[in-house]
């Protein structure tokens, strides 16, 4: 049976908390095909049992092991070590947008608080629950989200301007889109999307789409269509006049 | 020690996978104050990794399906050891549980008519698994999570429960745990506790299970005085990844075979045709031509006029067959066999039906599954064994303590059918929540917590920090996993099992002396040091039960007793409890199945 080849890899990992810390260097032996998370586990087992790192599925399905590897937003379980030059020191830091709990784990509770403000599916009273796969596809793309929060992490509104009070971020605009476009949903969340959730802050730089490990077309498929609906409703002068005169939507 | 934090609830649910979430939703809907406590962030529990689908006889993909057929398939798959009443409730109630998820926002794949689509899976007579591509678990957990959060359940994340507390009458009074983040202790007072902690896979080296699967609930129940049942039955899923080493054990959904994928050895032979057990003779295709006709019909969305391919036999059968090929020197280059869907389906269909498999192989193994076969081998996946519960209420023999989902035992007997786990956790999660809430509502007040006990137990948890020169907990864990893989794996012998039990005793001594560095804040080494206790006791329950069952049945294969023994072992379960002398296993007769249900499983 074929045996795996091994090599040494050197990592610089942030050790510390929100009050500060330092980059600490570790060298571990890894086998071919391994990912950054494997190297983190080797560091835990061999050098630093108390290194804090979240992970669960180790197959890109749960979105627990988000971090910044060499400055790039990554799921560490899907980031192969052979993506990096042999001998290159790999830096691993926690996501910048959230407060650090310890080492590479951060406090993402803000996301859970925001999510709770989104109204869940409100099925039409008369629905028979029959709809086509085509209708499902549109929503299923958004429901692929694994809540790794890498999109929130790279969104400059949150990352650089810290507008967490005013802007709900790409993750939850995707969730809102999945509800607004659900074939049997009857609720209207658009006003909330505009006012409370601050969709206007998004200026479509598409950083979130680039960061998404699930390949969800966040900006084009979720955010822009909602922006368009908002424009139609609130800013189209002809429609505005029509509604004013007729009282109809 | 510092004063610990306390919270008061009617019902505390431990574990936030499908079963825990479903229990908490039901309990909270009944109007009692409910807490949900979990080790990870919400939405990351193991349910998220379930891929293929949830089994329910909705009959939307094939109108012939009904609960009776689902019941029959489940009992046959479990090799007749299933708790019949659980299997019946499961088959009867799962369709409602799936429809309810749809109403709560889950978007399942559709049939051409616009209903919920269902796919074929091993051991299921009809296409029965409602699914969302190959990410069904994510859909279910997200749906339940959003439902639960909006219902006002209090969720306590990254909190590990270590001890169930009881009052002097033996009724649960609460539980003690620690915040993973701060390392501080916390006590939840409760009238009812629901265990929904999942499985035990981290006791083995090659596993599809995440770090969370450290047998917590099994051990909490055993230590609190409850019984475990069917511990010898541990499911090795036939198709885990085998290469590269980083992903060894990572799950490949049975959906690959449900969508037409075939298993081949190095000589290109479809060896499953030679591995159809007697009890399934006549139910599976006997030639490649017939199997191909079945796949073509399924792909074309027609009702097949052929029997299904033998790749869709139950998991225990397929896992053993793969092991046999590899042992006989007919394996793939990295010690597995080949799973080929590329030659059966179009690239477009593969990407649409199995998107995460495509992604997983492309990214992690440099294999394009639309053109090349996958290398696969068995991986420890699920435990049929678990806490013994009342089939209606899910209450254990400890008053006020309930269990649901993988941590509960009985439902699946000697082997679980794919898809029956997601339905199990919905059906029995709901029941556990309902009865736990009812139980809590009937009790007057919370009973007092014994503070001395709490302080002693908390102090014991801190011991690994103070030790001099102890071993690294990671080393002890690695040795346990390798030993279990080697001696308590797919095929077992008396000699191996006896030596496993001895090895567990010596590992226990080593575990009692491990030392951890750093402080109590978010310290995985410390958490693992504590988890070793759970894993050692439950490994022993598995090994002792496996030693006692001197036959082969379902997931339990004894090389020294290769046949099933219907007269004796086919009529009894093994029940484990903890006594003063340690883990003890006893034989008990199966409960009598009513005649009308017996009629359903007649051939």
Reported by name, the CATH topology of the largest domain in chain A is Fumarate Reductase Iron-sulfur Protein, Chain B, domain 2
Q: CATH H-level name of the largest domain in chain A... which superfamily? A: Alpha-helical ferredoxin
Beta-strand residue percentage of chain A: 15-25%
Bin the helical content of chain B: 25-40%
Oligomer: heterodimer
Order of helices and strands of chain A, N to C? EEHEEEEEHHHHHHHHH
Most strands sheet of chain A: 5 strands, mixed
Largest sheet of chain B: 5 strands, parallel
Total count of domains of chain B = 3
Largest interface: A-B, 60 and 72 residues
- The CATH class of the largest domain in chain B, by name, is Alpha Beta
Give the overall average pLDDT of chain B: 96
Number of DSSP E strands of chain B: 22
Computed over alpha carbons, the radius of gyration of chain B is: 23 Å
- Known CATH architecture of the largest domain in chain A: Orthogonal Bundle
Count of helix runs of chain A: 10
In the predicted model, the low-confidence regions of chain A spanning at least 5 consecutive residues are none
Strand order of the largest sheet of chain A: 2-1-5-3-4
Q: Tell me the fraction of residues in β-strands of chain B, as a range.
A: 15-25%
Low-pLDDT windows of residues of chain B: none
Q: What layout of secondary structure does this protein have?
A:
The complex is a heterodimer of chains A (249) and B (603).
Chain A: E1 6-17, E2 20-31, H1 36-46, E3 66-69, E4 72-75, E5 90-93, E6 100-102, E7 105-106, H2 109-115, H3 133-143, H4 150-154, H5 156-159, H6 170-180, H7 190-194, H8 207-211, H9 218-235, H10 237-246
Parallel strand pairs in A: 1-5
Antiparallel strand pairs in A: 1-2, 3-4, 3-5, 6-7
Helix pairs in contact in A: 3-6, 6-9
Chain B: E1 5-8, E2 11-14, H1 18-29, E3 34-37, E4 54-55, H2 67-77, H3 84-103, E5 118-119, E6 129-130, H4 136-150, E7 154-156, E8 159-166, E9 172-179, E10 185-189, E11 192-195, H5 216-224, E12 228-229, E13 234-241, H6 255-258, E14 262-264, H7 288-299, H8 315-327, E15 337-340, H9 347-353, H10 355-365, E16 374-383, E17 386-387, E18 401-403, H11 420-442, H12 451-466, H13 473-487, E19 491-492, H14 494-511, H15 524-548, E20 557-558, E21 572-579, E22 582-589, H16 595-601
Parallel strand pairs in B: 1-10, 2-3, 2-11, 3-7, 11-18, 19-20
Antiparallel strand pairs in B: 4-6, 5-6, 8-9, 9-10, 12-17, 12-21, 13-16, 14-15, 15-16, 21-22
């Amino acid at each position: 049976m074929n045996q795996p080849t091994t090599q040494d890899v050197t990592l610089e990992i942030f050790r510390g908390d929100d009050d500060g810390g330092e980059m600490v260097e570790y060298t571990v032996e890894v086998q071919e095909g391994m990912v950054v998370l494997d190297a983190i586990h080797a560091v835990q087992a061999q050098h630093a049992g108390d290194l804090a790192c979240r992970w669960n599925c180790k197959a890109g399905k749960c979105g627990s092991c988000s971090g910044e590897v060499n400055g790039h937003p990554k799921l560490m379980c899907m980031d192969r070590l052979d993506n990096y030059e042999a001998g290159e020191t790999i830096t691993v830091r926690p996501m910048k947008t959230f407060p650090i709990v310890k080492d590479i784990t951060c406090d993402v509770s803000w996301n859970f608080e925001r999510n709770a403000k989104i109204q869940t599916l409100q099925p039409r009273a008369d629905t028979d629950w029959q709809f086509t796969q085509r209708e499902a596809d549109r929503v299923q793309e958004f429901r692929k989200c694994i809540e790794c929060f890498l999109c929130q992490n790279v969104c400059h509104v949150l990352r650089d301007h810290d507008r967490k009070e005013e802007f709900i971020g790409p993750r939850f605009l995707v969730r809102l889109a999945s509800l607004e476009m659900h074939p049997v949903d009857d609720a209207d969340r658009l006003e909330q999307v505009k006012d409370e959730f601050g969709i206007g802050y998004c200026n479509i730089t598409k950083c979130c789409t680039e960061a998404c490990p699930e390949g969800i077309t966040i900006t084009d498929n979720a955010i822009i269509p909602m922006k368009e609906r908002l424009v139609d409703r609130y800013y189209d002068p002809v429609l505005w006049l029509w509604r004013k005169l007729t009282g109809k939507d | 020690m510092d004063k610990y934090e306390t919270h008061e609830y009617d019902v505390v649910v431990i574990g936030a996978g499908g079963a825990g979430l479903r229990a908490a939703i039901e309990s909270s809907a009944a109007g009692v104050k409910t807490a949900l406590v979990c080790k990870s962030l919400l939405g990351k529990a193991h349910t998220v990794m379930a891929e293929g689908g949830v089994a329910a006889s909705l009959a939307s993909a094939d109108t012939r399906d009904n609960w009776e057929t689902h019941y029959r398939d489940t009992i046959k798959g479990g090799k007749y050891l299933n708790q019949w009443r659980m299997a019946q409730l499961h088959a009867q109630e799962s369709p409602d549980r799936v429809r309810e998820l749809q109403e709560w926002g889950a978007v399942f794949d559709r049939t051409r008519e616009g209903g919920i689509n269902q796919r074929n899976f091993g051991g299921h007579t009809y296409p029965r698994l409602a699914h969302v591509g190959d990410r069904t678990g994510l859909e279910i957990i997200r749906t339940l999570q959003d439902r639960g959060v909006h219902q006002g359940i209090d969720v306590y994340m990254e909190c590990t429960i270590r001890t169930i507390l009881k009052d002097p009458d033996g009724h649960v009074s609460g539980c003690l745990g620690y915040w993973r983040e701060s390392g501080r202790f916390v006590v939840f007072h409760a009238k009812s506790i629901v265990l929904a902690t999942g499985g035990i896979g981290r006791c083995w080296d090659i596993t599809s299970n995440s770090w969370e699967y450290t047998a917590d609930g099994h051990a909490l129940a055993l230590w609190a005085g409850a019984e475990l049942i069917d511990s010898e039955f541990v499911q090795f899923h036939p198709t885990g990844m085998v290469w590269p080493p980083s992903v060894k054990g990572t799950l490949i959904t049975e959906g690959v075979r449900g969508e037409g994928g075939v298993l081949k050895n190095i000589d290109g032979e479809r060896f499953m045709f030679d591995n159809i057990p007697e009890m399934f003779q006549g139910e599976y295709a006997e030639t490649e031509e017939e199997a191909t006709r079945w796949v073509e019909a399924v792909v074309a969305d027609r009702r097949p006029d052929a029997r299904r391919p033998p790749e869709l036999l139950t998991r225990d059968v397929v896992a053993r067959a793969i092991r046999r090929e590899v042992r006989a020197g007919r394996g793939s280059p990295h010690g597995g066999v080949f799973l080929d869907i590329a030659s059966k389906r179009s690239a477009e269909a593969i990407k649409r039906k199995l998107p995460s498999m495509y992604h997983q192989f492309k990214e992690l193994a440099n294999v394009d599954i639309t053109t090349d076969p996958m290398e696969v081998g068995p991986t420890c996946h699920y435990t049929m064994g678990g806490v013994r519960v009342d089939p209606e209420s899910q209450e254990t023999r400890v008053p006020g303590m309930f269990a649901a989902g993988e941590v509960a035992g009985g439902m699946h007997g000697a082997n679980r059918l794919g898809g029956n786990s997601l339905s199990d956790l919905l059906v029995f999660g709901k029941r556990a929540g309902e009865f736990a809430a009812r139980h809590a509502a009937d009790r007057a007040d919370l009973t007092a917590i014994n503070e001395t006990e709490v302080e002693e137990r908390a102090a014991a948890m801190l011991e690994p920090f103070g030790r001099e020169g102890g071993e690294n907990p990671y080393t002890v864990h690695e040795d346990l996993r390798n030993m279990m893989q080697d001696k308590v794996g797919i095929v077992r012998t008396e000699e191996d099992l006896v030596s496993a039990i001895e090895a567990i005793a010596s590992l226990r001594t080593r575990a009692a002396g491990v030392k951890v560095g750093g402080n109590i804040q978010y310290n995985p080494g410390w958490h693992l040091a504590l988890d070793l206790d759970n894993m050692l006791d439950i490994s022993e329950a598995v090994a002792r039960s496996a030693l006692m069952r001197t036959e082969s049945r379902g997931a339990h294969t004894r090389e020294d007793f290769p046949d099933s023994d219907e007269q004796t072992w086919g009529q009894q379960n093994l029940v484990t409890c903890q006594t003063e002398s340690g883990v003890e296993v006893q034989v008990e007769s199966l409960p009598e199945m009513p005649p009308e249900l017996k009629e359903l499983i007649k051939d």
